[in-house]
Design goal:
alpha/beta; about 375 residues; 11 strands
Length: about 375
């Protein structure tokens, strides 16, 4: 299935890349990542630190920003600026806007019972936005300067792509696995369960937003103003790997850690499997750069892992892309219940769609 974004000359003229990462867009992606077990390798250290800080009432935010499905537009608004100022602006949203966004989500999926009263209950609204600020401070505040730097570096890279390859070069490089430019239409591939959707920008253009968090899938929100938003993974991965939230733990936290895999697979293949799990969809060339191996050696180890059923490999144009299988992830990470902030169970328990069908943001309507 596919989303098709139709461009006119005016749309191309108004399309731009966000200068900084919008706080609420990155927060929505981080909250979904917190609840997404398939991301346990790349974000394991960050998740453990975040869970230890979150208060029980944080479930309110998790329920309105589920790992799968729709999120109210007011919780993913692409407003740029200082995070605290953006959160204050969210508090001041008109009740009619909150009511409209929640009603739109309710047409697609079931809302928690308390959310039906959010727009009209002043005390509940204050509690929710206090909790939203707490979640931001727990998940993103310690890393915000680094996240902003990555977004700024990515914007510079996109500007160079426009200078050397034009708009075609920009669109072709955003996320080659999922985004394709077929002038004048930008196609976003989606899982088979998603409907086909045509989005006409009508002269508004498109805001491209680089994201540090997420599983690499693009997201599209066609309802934001003044223009629709397309989120894509920040392309400066060599910088993002330096973030403290991606730091490897000093000791393996589960029996499936890399150190315990070394006697089973050999140290180099354990490193290769971990790199593929942390950078799902990487090419053999990228895998070699991530592990410090020669491309031929990286390809050889990937072949052995594929034959063992630990990774899968698909061809995309002239490259082959590697992703971990469920068995490969299971070797690296033992699923764990996250009850550290009193939520009485697994934070993913409210998911309604399988991980392969997840929509990383609010789907276009």
């Amino acid at each position: 299935m596919v989303y098709r974004i139709h461009f006119t000359v005016e749309d191309l003229a108004r399309t731009q890349v966000a200068e900084v990462s919008p706080p609420l867009v990155e927060l929505s992606a981080a909250v979904r990542t917190l609840q997404e077990p398939s991301q346990s390798v790349r974000y394991g250290t960050w998740r453990r630190q975040a869970v230890a800080k979150l208060l029980p009432q944080s479930r309110m935010v998790l329920e309105l920003i589920p790992a799968d499905g729709w999120t109210p537009t007011f919780l993913g608004a692409p407003t740029a600026g200082d995070p605290q100022e953006v959160l204050e602006q969210a508090r001041a949203l008109p009740r009619s806007e909150i009511r409209k966004d929640l009603a739109s989500v309710a047409e697609q999926q079931r809302l928690p019972s308390w959310a039906h009263h959010l727009a009209d209950d002043r005390d509940l609204r204050r509690q929710f936005f206090d909790t939203l600020e707490h979640v931001f401070n727990s998940l993103l505040s310690p890393y915000w300067n680094e996240i902003s730097s990555i977004a700024l570096a990515d914007r510079g890279a996109r500007a160079r792509q426009v200078l050397t390859g034009g708009v075609q070069g920009l669109f072709a490089s955003l996320n080659p696995r999922w985004i394709r430019w077929k002038p004048p239409v930008l196609e976003i591939l989606r899982p088979p369960s998603c409907p086909e959707v045509d989005v006409h920008l009508q002269g508004r253009g498109l805001l491209l937003v680089p994201q540090v968090f997420g599983n690499g899938l693009p997201f599209l929100d066609a309802d934001t103003e003044p223009q629709p938003v397309l989120g894509y993974p920040a392309g400066t991965d060599q910088h993002s790997r330096k973030l403290p939230l991606f730091a490897a733990p000093e000791q393996p936290t589960t029996p499936g850690g890399t150190s315990s895999l070394a006697p089973l697979l050999g140290r180099t293949r354990a490193v290769v499997l971990t790199a593929i799990a942390e950078h799902s969809g990487c090419s053999t060339k990228e895998l070699a750069a991530l592990t410090g191996l020669a491309p031929a050696s990286a390809s050889e180890h990937a072949t052995i892992l594929r034959e063992a059923g630990l990774i899968r490999t698909v061809r995309h144009h002239n490259a082959v892309l590697h992703s971990p299988t469920n068995l490969g992830r299971a070797l690296l990470n033992t699923p764990r219940k996250m009850t550290g902030y009193g939520l009485q169970g697994d934070v993913t328990s409210h998911r309604s769609v399988s991980a392969t069908e997840r929509s990383p943001g609010r789907p276009a309507r």
